[in-house]
Amino acid sequence: MFRTMRKYARLYGIFIKNCLIAQMEFRGNFMMSLLVESVYLVAKLLYVLVVFRTDLHVDGIPPEGLLLFIGMHTVVTGFYVGLFFTNFMKIPEYVKDGSLDLMLTKPVSLQFMASLRYVDLALPIPDILVGLVMIGIGWHAMEIPLTFLHIAGFALLLLVSMVITYCLMIIPALLSFRFVQTGAVSEIAHSVWDANNFPMAIYPTWVRRIGTFVIPLFLITNFGPLFLLGQLSWLYAGLALAGSLLLFVAIRLLWQRAVRGYSSASS
Amino acid sequence: MNRRRLYSAIFSMGVQHSMEYRLHFFLGLLGAMFPILVQYFIWTAVYRHSGQAALFSYSYGQIILYTILAGLVSKLIATQFEQQIADDIKNGGLNKYLIKPVSYFGYRLVSFFGQKAIYYGITALLLGGIIWFASARGALELQAIRLILFAITLWGALLLNFLIAYCICASAFYLHEISYFFVITSLLVNILSGGMFPLEIFGESVVKALQFTPFPYTIYFPVNVLSGKTEVAAMYQGLLIQWGWILLFIGLSRLTWQVSMKKYSAVGG
């Protein structure tokens, strides 16, 4: 088990190195990726503008506290666009043009190869930087102590967020094993993703329940900041971790089921 | 083939193209609803907390109406042909239009209107329902003249947005990899047009400055004509300015393409 994990970690390191070399070959594209994500970030920051210009308080949390939620969303978006987005967009192409065949023959997990092969190192830079700054401002303004326990709890919930992000955002790509056009489903998934840049308290109870227990989208942005604000105990943090691992197992089973229905298209 | 038959064939092709993947088309419509819903909940929280009757000069009803209408209008006027034009320029697809008795501008414009025709019809139905609901709830005072002017300004917005995008497309003659550029410009144009939020959130001076650009006349202006935010006199003035921008951009698009075409080397095709 440990040896397998080491093998995959080494392989992932090689993927990152390979992607970095490829991106540095076309430095103009690297800069344009940075610029594109920065413009998307500007669009997201308009929400911050509205929060501060209207002095919005949600569930007693002042605008500075809301920065924790928007910052968390921005950081996780950075990880999503950097680690998963390119891969998830490519999966339907692999299925359509039959290039999944070649991956099937390789001595590594197909899911690992298809969903983690590419890493974009330009796209996440603005999101992660600005997101961390927002979290820092919120952390300081809300007078949250900077202790090991707070940092460890927040880091754990960030990890949970990334696992849930992987599991939820791969679903449109999984549909490509059954349908030809899945672009609109991805578009809907991204629209729903953007619904998560505010505390779930702004939504009615039934939306919160769906977003927590059915499609656990709200866990991604809400649990980290709620933990910092002292509104989430270690027990719930542990439950979130267990829930994310269960979700990962479910997605793994779904992937295996989808691949069983794959019939080579070409090559 | 005479010109009328030619362009009606192109229009028909545009309509067929938009309905090629029907499920995709309707899911796209559904996708447009989510950002509207998110903003609805955000604005509801903002107004509930502030306790004020109006923020940024909009009442709660007006801001919700603006959010819904701006979401629909921005989806309606979205162009999405930039990459096709860039590919035509890069891969030589433009060649076949240069040697045939059809104007590339005319082809793109009529095809664009054809692609939007069904969407325009569905949006009209949706708008009918929203207008009826908003007027029944007292959020909108229904006036025939505003409805007529809204329909006119909406067509104007469609045309103006097409022309802005067509001018931007001329940059494909000079830039090799341009897909990123289109993403940036379309997002910025949407923000400056009031497609995400009403322009008032940027402050009074920015709103005044933006009045000297064509952007507000694609989303912000038509929506405010219908919602009643724009005064009667300002409506006619705005309509004139919108068509002034359209005329200016017709000239600008011809000029930019004539100049840029000299750079074209007709490779491939």
TrEMBL record, chain A:
The chain crosses the membrane at residues 34-54, 66-86, 121-142, 148-171, 210-228, 234-255. InterPro entries: ABC-2_transporter-like. It comes from the Bacteria. The keyword Transmembrane helix applies. It holds the Pfam family ABC2_membrane_6. Keywords: Membrane, Transmembrane, Transmembrane helix. The keyword Transmembrane helix applies. PANTHER family: SLR0610 PROTEIN, SLR0610 PROTEIN-RELATED. This is ABC transporter permease.
